[in-house]
Amino acid sequence: xxxxxxxxxxxxxxxTYGSKTYLSKIEFRSVDLxxxxxxxxxxxxxxxxxxxxxxxxxxxxxxxxGAQPEWTTTLSDSRGITQVRLQVCRAEGDDIxxxxxxxxxxxxxx
Length: 110
Prior knowledge:
- By secondary structure, the protein is an all-beta fold.
- It has one domain (about 1-100): Immunoglobulin-like.
- About 0% of the residues lie in helices and about 60% in strands.
- The chain is built from no helices and ten strands.
- The protein has strands at about 1-5, 10-20, 20-30, 40-45, 55, 60, 70-75, 85-90, 95-100, 105.
- The strands form two sheets. Strands 4, 5, 6, 8, 9 and 10 form a six-stranded antiparallel β-sheet that branches. The protein has a four-stranded antiparallel β-sheet with strand order 1-2-3-7, with no helix packed on it.
- A hairpin with a 2-residue loop joins strand 2 and strand 3 (about 20-30).
- It is elongated, with a radius of gyration of 14 Å.
């Protein structure tokens, strides 16, 4: 499990690697921790085989304090996935206010 917490936002994700280039199951959960008018969001960052970092699509939590939406998806990158981490942020519109990151989880298939 990956998890991270910053002021106003918490997130966790369960990741299952399927191959060197594929995450066969990703289960996200975002929690808004404060009644402050800001929203919580999270996404995955991956390290590719060449060492570059890819930032994937945001998942938004606009539900207010205590809201805990969940998502299940997969991810594929032909350039390889050697590691993955979770980025959790609090934001106002498109402006990121603060973020935290989980540790990196290595791909056993690499």
